[in-house]
Design brief:
38% of the residues lie in helices and 13% in strands. By secondary structure, it is of the alpha/beta class. Among the domains are: 274-473, P-loop containing nucleotide triphosphate hydrolases (Rossmann fold, 3-Layer(aba) Sandwich); 480-525 and 553-730, Rossmann fold, CATH 3.40.50.300; 804-1007, no CATH class; 1080-1232, Sec63 N-terminal domain-like fold. The strands form 7 sheets. A 9-stranded mixed β-sheet has the order 8-16-9-15-14-10-13-11-12. A 7-stranded mixed β-sheet has the order 18-17-25-22-19-21-20, with helices on both faces. The longest helix is centred in the middle third of the chain and has 31 residues, at 800-830. It is globular. It is found in: Cytoplasm. Its main location: cytoplasm. Keywords: ATP-binding, Cytoplasm, Helicase, Hydrolase, Nucleotide-binding, RNA-binding.
């Protein structure tokens, strides 16, 4: 301290650039008073103060970005600054680190460096490597997103760029107006100074060394080569092409046959074990199964069946599998193992089902087993980020089209009940999803037994370019026995006859006994008269029905055949039959009745008091306490779930259900009863198909409890036919068939993503699989024809080269017109109209050996499939019999006859022959007819002389005289009159053909080529070339997109969209209305038109709900407009007007979906409009049920589906920037989302934790 000098001089130093100062010892000999700086050279020139930055922005508004107009209140003109182009953003990293994991354990093994490809966004890339979107859209995606590249589909961008560049003329093909713009750049050629090219300048090809090994591709050769990928660094060079030695062999080959038309019905038998893309696995027990998979992802308490073992082995290898097995065989085991595999690999699984009820049931089952499970349906969204997501196929389709980021993590997609692809309305959804799934997703398909699983698997494999392994088993875990029940109560209640035993053998003895028993009953009921002959007359009166059902249930209870599922194809009769058994109360014990009552009251606790007292709720409680349940679409959803749970717990002994109960989780019973084997399919009554019967009968037999399942068919007034029984019980199930059809939504969604065309999806559908399999054959044929055409001799005649090609075209048109006429006339003759063609008529016909000759009609066979006309022609004696004509020779003879009508005349001894012809062999019909011709005698004599022992016999006089007359006519050749006058045609279409034909015949003499001395040779040569060219065109058409079956419908629908202004007419770009329609799930055209109608959307909330209910109401009610509330009638008229306009446009442009087109306006039903209006006006559910006879479950379903449409409309309103409409739709949705209609599913409540031991 004592050495410190307090008088040390100090000075000020500025710290940094924020104005802070401090004191430091002053520098020696420093006289300046300027403060020191902590930065010796002052502030860096790259930094500036906030004040200076703000001054620069205010004082230089011209530097504001012109495109960021959203933050500017006005626009300042700016002067271009070239130096701004010199600044380049830093490039992204060229490599990235990839995590490597052990798939069996999930442990981290290490990292590897990988080259980073260009990462786009969801708006410009279909790659899985694109940047993820907002977290809020990770599950549902966004309509503006591109979908991920479907598996099996090549990346189209680079290849298309290469192909397009090859054909671009940079002087004439460059655009001056960008697509979608109304104006563009004006490139004036006058502004570019012309550069004179020196005459002695050489082409770059001329500078290529003659001794080099390569030459540039010729233009025609380059087009045959496939465009190279950007990954290839090879130049477009190839060794010099040598002439193919096989071309010479093809010079003389003449293709005369028509290109074969692909016949779908004649496809090759699928008894084979494998195809290129599918293979049937030999299902035998795997003895070393646990050695192959020592650490299984999931285990069960029971031993796996062989088909389950094979399926799991292929799942471990990440293979596609198609599992076909009977109902209750254990297909769910395969799905469960896939979910466990995904959990082990830290990936996701999507389980799809055809109906929401099944989705809810599977959610509960999988939640108990695996824990991390979510569900996505139209009205339930739980745990959307779960590892296993349960959803309907429609939800998955929406996720695919909207590019959901969740799909990146999906390892397995499970399609349950995939045979539902046969559904006419919704089957197309399965095909769309299978086509659109990305490459990294593995597919599991679970199906009932079908006869063409290999064909279907082949389509999936070919579409995704992955092999599919078909694992099928015909073994039932519990065999079925089938009975006919003829009892009617009382003493006959035990009349149950076995007709098919457990080994699927038809018992004729039991069938005859059933016939005899039914004959006794019919005699009693009719007083000795014969019973009803109509096989569909199976109804009893109510008293008889009650007696029969009481006796049947008593028999089943005594025979230990309960519980039973009674399938009845009518909701009303389900309810009626259940009520007829309410007197039976001995099916449940007093303890069971108490448990049922307790559980029932607990499950309906969430309902309001008024809803708890609904008649259906009270009725169901009473029935369930007696062990009786009812299950169909008219039952309230919560009651259906209660019935299902009671049935699973064993409290329901008798269940009356419609066929939808067969599509669900494993709910087997001891017995299945068919009230009838006849159902109404919307068009009329028909017998059950084998697949329908097998699906429902498969619910009989509980694995581990029953040795066999009983299936009983009720015979009420008659016994079904034996043939019908055999077809149902032992017939083949329905084949999987494509129900692919284009929808407006599909077209608009694909149009909004220009990476792919609609044709790309059509050609990958199951509908086109047969034709696509023929593509390689067509390509080979086309290549062969091109070689023949290139090697064909060119015409060098100076006379024929002038107009022979045109003569071929004109004469071929004449031949086609005459063929059209002859086909009509000869068909009339086959039907009995003998005014023109009859026995004795003289024709000019074409033969392969004798050319043009006269033929005498001796017989007409009206029922012959081919060549129905037998004619007598002239030959030389002992000459060979004429063979059937080839099309090209017939055509040549007809064309030559137009120029030279010379007829065949024998040069040696006169002979004759009988040949069979059709209209194609007829050159012309003469006016000459031989009267009283004995055609049958001529034919009999001819057939006799074809035998060896009668070969030398002379012909009969009738044959001899007819031959001499033909010779005389041929020598005279007196057919100079206009033969067309003999064609007495009454059909208006063929009169027009006749009018076209007459003037064309007069133009033949004007051609110069007919004067050529070698005309016939040159004509044959030219026709050969024309024929080859036509076949090339046919094959090119077969290989083009225009040959697809759905293309006509696609073009028709596209015209409808253009006329409605959903798609721009000029450039086929999607318009504003089209973008709106992309957000709509159902009835996209109708909903869009209603949404953009200000008059409708300006109405009150209840009115909007009532009018929109017509889009979702599936109950056909009365059409009387007077029943509709007064304030709804105007809106109804507007809706019908819009629907009629859309229907008229579809008819105008020929939309092919006639099934829906015919009833387009009729499908918008307002029978529940008043009910929905009152519900949206806050009336209780019990009161609105009294307004209609429609069942409660149908009302609930209608309101729930209405809410899904309102959600779509709310999203659309948000996208188009209409907050008032968005608020209105949310308001309407809130009005209807209440009480029992939207009661929470019981399957999503009170779920226990998963089994930790599995």
């Amino acid at each position: 301290m004592e050495n410190f000098n307090f008088l040390t001089p100090l000075e000020v130093i500025e710290l940094g650039c924020n104005g802070r100062t401090d004191l430091i010892p002053a520098a020696i000999n420093k006289n300046s008073l300027i403060p020191q700086h902590s930065l010796p050279f002052g502030l860096p020139p790259v930094l500036s103060t906030l004040q200076s930055q703000l001054e620069h922005i205010i004082c230089s508004p011209e530097e504001l970005p012109i495109h960021d107009f959203g933050k500017c209140q006005r626009y300042w003109p700016r002067t271009p600054k070239i130096e701004t182009l010199f600044s380049i953003d830093p490039s992204a990293l060229a490599t990235d680190l990839i995590v490597e994991r052990d798939f069996s354990t999930g442990k981290l093994k290490g990292f590897s460096e990988s080259e980073v490809t260009l990462r786009g966004t969801a708006q410009n890339s279909v790659s899985m490597c694109r940047l993820p979107g907002p977290p809020s859209e990770s599950v549902r995606g966004n309509v503006s997103n591109l979908f991920f590249l479907p598996g099996g589909m090549d990346e189209p961008i680079f290849e298309k760029l290469l192909i397009d560049v090859e054909d671009v003329n940079f002087e004439t093909d460059l655009l001056s107006v960008p697509p979608g713009f109304s104006e563009g750049m004006n490139f004036d050629n006058n502004l570019v100074p012309e550069v004179e090219v020196a005459k002695d300048d050489k082409n770059i090809v001329d500078l290529w060394s003659a001794g080099d090994e390569f030459v540039f591709l010729k233009e025609d050769e380059a087009t045959e080569k496939s465009a190279p990928s950007f990954q290839d660094n090879e130049m477009l060079l190839t060794p010099a092409k040598q002439e193919d030695p096989k071309v010479a062999e093809l010079e003389n080959e003449v293709i005369m046959k028509e290109i074969p038309v692909v016949n779908i019905t004649n496809t090759k038998s699928l008894t084979q074990k494998s195809t290129e893309w599918a293979e049937i696995v030999d299902v035998t027990k795997v003895d070393n199964f646990h050695e192959l998979i020592p650490n299984m992802a999931y285990t069960w308490e029971f031993d796996l069946d062989p088909f389950q073992q094979h399926a799991i082995l292929h799942l471990e290898q990440q293979d596609y599998v198609f599992v076909a097995a009977h109902t209750s065989a254990g297909k769910t085991v395969v799905a469960e193992y896939a979910i466990a595999l995904a959990n082990r690999n830290k990936t996701k699984t999507i389980y799809t089902s055809p109906i929401k009820a099944l989705s809810n049931q599977k959610y509960r089952d999988f939640k108990i087993k695996f824990g991390d499970v979510g569900i996505l349906t139209g009205d339930v969204q739980l745990n959307e980020k779960a590892a296993c997501l349960i959803m309907t196929t429609e939800i998955l389709r929406s996720m695919l089209y909207r590019g959901s980021d969740t799909l990146r993590d999906v390892e397995w997609v499970i399609f349950d009940e995939v045979h539902y692809i046969n559904d006419h309305e919704r089957g197309v959804v399965w095909e769309e999803v299978l086509i659109m799934l990305p490459e990294q997703v593995n597919i599991i398909m679970l199906s009932a037994t079908v006869p063409n699983e290999l064909e279907f698997a082949h389509w999936v494999g070919k579409t995704k370019k992955r092999k599919v392994y078909v694992i099928r088993t015909m073994v039932r875990p519990v065999p079925l026995v089938h009975y006919l029940y003829t009892g009617s109560g009382g003493k006959s209640k035990d009349e149950n006859f076995l007709i098919v035993n457990s080994k699927t053998k038809f018992e004729m003895k039991g069938y005859k006994e059933a016939l005899a028993a039914m004959a006794v009953h019919q005699a009693k009921m009719s007083g000795g008269r014969a019973g009803p002959s109509n096989k569909f007359a199976m109804r009893l009166n109510p008293k008889q029905e009650e007696t029969m059902w009481n006796g049947l249930i008593s028999f089943l209870d005594k025979s230990k055949l309960l519980p039973v599922i009674c399938f009845i194809f009518s909701r009303d009769r389900c309810d009626q039959n259940a009520l007829r058994l309410r007197s039976i109360d001995n099916l449940t014990t007093s303890k069971e009745k108490w448990i049922i009552k307790t559980k029932f009251d607990k499950w309906i606790q969430q309902l309001k008091d008024s809803d708890k007292n609904l008649p259906q709720v009270k009725r169901m409680r009473s029935l369930l306490e007696n062990g009786i349940g009812v299950h169909h679409s008219g039952i309230l959803p919560i009651l259906k779930e209660i019935v299902e749970m009671m049935f699973q717990d064993g409290f329901v002994k008798v269940l009356f259900a419609t066929e939808t109960f067969a599509i669900g989780v494993n709910m087997p019973a001891r017995t299945v009863i068919f009230d009838t084997v006849v159902k109404h399919d919307g068009k009329g009554l028909r017998n059950l198909e084998a697949s329908e019967y097998i699906q429902m009968a498969g619910r009989a037999g509980r694995r581990g409890e029953d040795k066999e399942g009983a299936v009983i068919i009720l015979c009420k007034k008659n016994v079904p036919d034996e043939a019908d029984m055999r077809n149902m019980m032992m017939g083949k199930p329905t084949r999987l068939a494509s129900k692919f059809r284009l929808t407006y939504a599909m077209i608009l969604k694909l149009f909004s993503r220009k990476h792919f065309k609609v044709e790309d999806i059509i050609k990958r559908s199951f509908l086109e699989i047969i034709d696509s399999d023929e593509q390689e054959s067509f390509k080979r044929q086309l290549e062969k024809l091109h070689n023949i055409r290139q090697s064909a001799q060119q015409l060098t005649c100076s006379v024929c080269s002038v107009d022979l090609a045109k003569f071929c075209i004109e004469s071929r048109e004449i031949v086609d017109l005459k063929n059209n006429l002859h086909e009509y006339i000869l068909n009339c003759a086959r039907k009995g109209d003998s005014s023109i063609i009859h026995v004795g008529r003289v024709l000019v016909v074409s033969t392969s050996i004798r050319g043009c000759c006269l033929g005498l009609v001796v017989k007409i066979s009206p029922y012959a499939r081919e060549n129905p006309f037998k004619v007598l022609i002239l030959t030389e004696k002992d000459a060979p019999i004429a063979e059937n004509e080839e099309n090209m020779i017939c055509e040549l003879n007809k064309m030559k006859y137009l120029v030279d009508d010379k007829l065949f005349i024998p040069e040696s001894l006169l002979g004759h022959s009988l040949i069979d012809i059709d209209y194609k062999s007829v050159i012309t019909i003469t006016t000459i007819s031989l009267k009283k011709l004995e055609g049958e005698k001529i034919i009999a004599d001819w057939n006799k002389r074809q035998q060896i022992r009668f070969k030398s016999d002379s012909p009969i006089e009738a044959c001899h005289s007819s031959t001499r007359e033909l010779l005389r006519l041929s020598e005279e050749n007196a057919f100079n009159e206009d033969l067309l006058d003999a064609y007495k045609v009454n059909d208006i279409d063929h009169v027009e053909v006749l009018d076209k034909l007459k003037p064309k015949l007069k133009t033949i003499d004007k051609f110069q080529c007919i004067n050529c001395p070698h005309f016939e040779i040159h004509l044959k040569q030219e026709m050969h070339n024309v024929n080859v060219d036509q076949q090339i065109q046919k094959l090119e058409f077969q290989l083009s997109d225009d040959a697809l079956k759905s293309i006509p419908d696609y073009k028709a629908r596209l015209e409808v969209l253009k006329e409605l202004k959903y798609v721009k007419t000029s450039d086929d770009l999607i318009d504003f209305k089209g973008k709106v329609a992309c957000w709509i799930s159902n009835h996209e055209l109708m909903v869009t038109e209603l949404l953009l109608d200000d008059d409708l959307m300006s109405k009150k909330g209840p009115e909007i709900a009532a009018l929109l209910s017509c889009l979702v109401c599936q109950q056909k009610g009365k059409k009387d407009e007077d029943d509709l509330y007064e304030n709804l009638r105007e809106g109804r008229s507007k809706v019908i007007e819009i629907a009629k306009r859309i229907e008229d446009l579809q008819k105008k442009h020929g939309v092919q979906d006639q099934e829906s087109l015919r009833d387009y306006v009729e499908q918008f039903d307002f029978c529940l409009a008043n009910v929905v209006y009152e519900w949206a006006s806050a009336r209780p559910f019990s009161e609105i049920c009294e307004m209609t006879d429609v069942q409660e479950g149908i009302i609930v379903r209608t309101i729930q589906r209405l809410d899904e449409i309102l959600k779509d409309l709310k999203k659309v309103a948000h996208v188009i920037g209409n907050p008032n409409l968005e608020h209105k739709m949310e308001e309407v949705s809130n009005l209807i989302r209440r009480d029992i209609v939207f009661a929470a599913s019981l399957y999503t409540q009170d779920i226990n934790e998963p089994n930790k031991n599995s």
